[in-house]
Design brief:
binds heme C
Length: 213
């Protein structure tokens, strides 16, 4: 029974992955990827890619398993939502900085308690880092836009660190305002598809009031 669902799902995914891979050939959008040293890529033609496609599928499944909030999957690309959840909740550490506090009362793993994410404030921002405050990433904008950004704006922020909301502090200057705590110098290295996945996942999480608002 599981096989009958899994195999067609895997096949569809394999086809999709190939389609995306051929399509994506570097339409990485605005901004520069820092330090593309252009190191040599070994000949990968002998690599059995089926294992990697399975890994991608496992990441999607795991993404759904670890999402700490109910997801609105209407009009969403399911594979991207699952993958985005994986990137946000298993790799990106977004919750640590964008949820205040990150864990529910009695659910802080750093205190040896059984882990429970603070679902009520999930990714709503408001965590102070000195004068810098983390932002609301939930889809609070018109039409459910994460951080109230279109995809193109969102990608630009992750790739370049530009503060499109122009909030204090203005570093290095008012007209060249860059995010100061957000690890965009790391996230800018992601392939387009991963940024799309993050965005699609954030479209699916519950709206919360947060910072700024
Ligand atoms: C080390 C803490 C930290 C982590 C980890 C982090 N962020 Fe941020 N992020 C911030 C802070 C703080 C700001 C806003 C202020 C600044 O950095 O100047 C911000 C800003 C942003 C913005 C700009 C929002 C706006 O309204 O302009 C986006 C988008 C964003 N983060 C997405 C993410 C995503 C997605 C992840 C996980 C993949 C993530 N962040 C992980 C701290 C973090």
């Amino acid at each position: 029974m599981t096989r009958r669902i899994l195999m067609p799902a895997l096949l569809t995914l394999a086809v999709c992955t190939l389609a995306v891979a051929t399509h994506a050939q570097d339409r990485e959008g605005t901004g520069t990827v820092q330090s593309p040293r252009g190191g040599p890529v070994p000949d990968l033609s002998g690599v059995d890619s089926s294992g990697f496609i399975l890994t991608e599928f496992q990441r999607i499944v795991r993404g759904f398993q670890i999402a700490p909030v109910p997801l609105n999957l209407q009009n969403k690309d399911l594979a991207l939502v699952g993958l985005g959840s994986y990137i946000v909740n298993a790799e990106g550490g977004c919750n640590d900085c964008h949820t205040n506090p990150p864990f529910a009362a009695g659910g802080d793993p750093h205190m040896g308690q059984p882990k429970r994410i603070n679902a009520e404030r999930y990714l709503a921002g408001g965590t102070p880092f000195g004068p810098v405050i983390s932002r609301n990433l939930t889809p609070y904008g018109q039409g459910g836009k994460p951080a109230n950004y279109t995809f193109d704006e969102f990608r630009r922020v992750l790739r370049t660190g530009v503060d499109l909301k122009n909030l204090e502090p203005h570093v290095p200057s008012a007209d060249h305002d860059l995010l100061q705590v957000m690890p965009w110098p790391v996230f800018q290295n992601q392939v387009d598809r991963d940024i799309r996945a993050i965005y699609e996942y954030l479209r699916a999480i519950p709206v919360r009031e947060g910072f700024p608002e």
